[in-house]
Amino acid sequence: MPDLVVPHVTKWSTEHTPLSKVTRHRSGRGIAYVDETIGDRDSQGVLWARANLAPQVGRPLFGQVHPLRQRRAMRRLLCQVCGGLADRTDDGVLWLLPDHRDDWSGWPEDMFATEPPICRPCVDVSTRLCPALRRSHVLFRSHVHEIAGVRGPRYRPGKRGVVEDGLVLVPYGDPLIPWTLAHDLARELRACVIVD
């Protein structure tokens, strides 16, 4: 049996998300963990989902992304498959995503991406093994790809604490971002060029 290819950002069955009670922040404007530590927030003050690190232990949970590895890959522009540096040229960083050009004119320009970029050697493996990419995919470069926001569950005040209120993609600076528990870091992709 050939070696199983598991993307770097994939969550493993032993990487549990610790049960951390989310409550209303003492300021009343946003959420916090009851037992919050300094490492639970990013430099913008956004609360991040917790998860222990145990890569390659247990079984891979394809389709589930580990929040810390995804965040690191997006911050450092690492390949989502191998974890090495993503491919870069003068035209920009290489991205491989399902094809959504029919969804809006100009896609992927101005898109908020939560999927990290990719390196050239991992393109063929990804398009061959990933079911979503086998159906359709686009390879493109973005010359501008600034960190722009987060995706995760948003909370709202409830009668007893806070209540989860759906999954959202929120830009930094949005007044409701303090109510979002970040799971994925997003970059806004601009100056995009489709690659053959």
From TrEMBL:
Source taxon at top rank: Bacteria
UniProt-recorded name of the protein: Uncharacterized protein
Lineage: Bacteria, Bacillati, Actinomycetota, Actinomycetes, Pseudonocardiales
